[in-house]
């Protein structure tokens, strides 16, 4: 009976760690999906600007694409390290259980758990680094809105004219 209570005590820290890692992965995934959506939008806008021969706008969008790709890479690394920490934590739970019969596995479980915590730390550092550059990316984007507005205005006028033609009675 004593061994089973020790097993449950040993599982508490890794179980809490699993929940924390899963929530962090969820948060990172939402952030990455937002970046991917924005990246696709910028790539489409850059293509439209290139076809319309608005090179300054296309160049500005290209810089934004590079900036978002760098940020997305930081988030990808954060997700990878956090998933590694989650995997290591689950493995350490398994090793702790087996460590009740084989002491060497309990020591291995401790090493795996420490490595998992270090991976979580690395993932959190990448997340923090991305958060710190996120606002600078938005500020850079704001510098180029005048190019983007010019291209949209021309496109809006064309669409409005087409809409008016369609709505006119014949």
Would you give an account of this structure?
The chain is mainly α and 170 residues long. The chain has one domain. The chain is built from four helices and no strands. Helix 2 runs antiparallel to helix 3. The radius of gyration is 25 Å and the shape is rod-shaped. Mean pLDDT is 80; it is low at 154-168.
Which structural category fits the helices and strands? mainly alpha
Helix content: over 70%
Strand percentage, roughly? under 5%
First and last CA, distance: 89 Å
Count of structural domains: 1
SS elements, strand count? 0
Low-confidence stretches: 154-168
What is the mean predicted local confidence, pLDDT? Answer: 80
Q: Helical stretch count?
A: 4
Tell me the radius of gyration. Answer: 25 Å
How would you spell out the order of helices and strands?
HHHH
| Coarse morphology | rod-shaped
How does the major sheet shape up?
none
Topology (elements, then pairings):
Elements: H1 2-51, H2 55-99, H3 103-143, H4 145-167
Structure summary:
94% of the residues lie in helices and 0% in strands. The protein is mainly α.
Features:
170 residues, single chain, 4 helices, mainly alpha
């Amino acid at each position: 009976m004593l061994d089973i209570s020790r097993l449950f005590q040993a599982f508490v820290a890794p179980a809490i760690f699993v929940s924390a890692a899963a929530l962090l992965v969820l948060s990172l995934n939402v952030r990455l999906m937002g970046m991917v959506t924005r990246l696709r939008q910028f790539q489409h806008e850059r293509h439209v600007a290139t076809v319309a021969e608005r090179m300054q706008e296309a160049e500005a969008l290209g810089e934004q694409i590079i900036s978002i790709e760098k940020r997305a890479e930081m988030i990808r690394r954060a997700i990878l390290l956090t998933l590694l920490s989650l995997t290591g934590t689950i493995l350490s739970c398994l090793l702790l259980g087996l460590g009740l019969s084989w002491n060497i596995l309990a020591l291995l479980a401790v090493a795996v758990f420490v490595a998992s915590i270090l991976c979580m730390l690395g993932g959190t550092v990448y997340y923090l680094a991305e958060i710190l550059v996120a606002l600078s990316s938005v500020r850079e984007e704001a510098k180029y809105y005048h190019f983007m507005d010019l291209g949209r205005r021309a496109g809006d006028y064309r669409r409005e004219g087409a809409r008016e033609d369609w709505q006119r009675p014949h």
